[in-house]
Amino acid sequence: MQTRPLVLVQQPEKGNYKADEGVITAIAVYSGEAPLSVSTKRIFDGETRFSFPSEITQGATKTRIVYSYKPEQWRELLETCSMPGVHGGIKQVMIPLLKYFQEAYPGVFNDIQHNEELDPDFLAEIVKLK
């Protein structure tokens, strides 16, 4: 049975990000292999085209998936990945990230809706990097 992943995410710098500033990086770490739905490369349309995820590293005992995007790209990704028909493995990582971003960057992410009924024991654990 796959254990829930850890998601390492950078903490915001002073103040709140604006939609056109900086890059926010998150790293999902899985024990063993990541689900295919999460590790498959995808392209989303927006002002700047980008792949999801940005890097995948597999080892003997874990898989690390890196997501590194500007806030407007994160917004597009999180809006897409919080839709009802999205695979559970993607929601497992993206819903906790969305909740974190809504708290850390409210001006950019607060209006994105998601399924509140997901089992908290299923969702990834967020670890804030300093």
Briefly, what is this?
About 30% of the residues lie in helices and about 30% in strands. It has helices at about 35-40, 70-80, 90-105, 105-110; strands spanning about 5-10, 25-30, 40-45, 50, 55-60, 60-70, 125-130.
Radius of gyration: 14 Å
- Counted up, domains total 1
Order of helices and strands: EEHEEEEHHHE
Please write the CATH class name. Answer: Alpha Beta
Helicity range? 25-40%
Shape: globular
CATH topology: Alpha-Beta Plaits
Mean pLDDT: 78
**Low-confidence runs of at least 5 consecutive residues:** none
What's the tally of helices? 4
User: In the CATH classification, which architecture applies?
Assistant: 2-Layer Sandwich
Biggest pleated-sheet summary: 5 strands, mixed
Number of strands: 7
Give the DSSP E fraction (strand runs of 2 or more residues): 25-35%
Strand order of the largest sheet: 5-6-2-1-7
Structural class of the helices, strands and pairings? alpha+beta
Euclidean distance between termini CA atoms: 31 Å
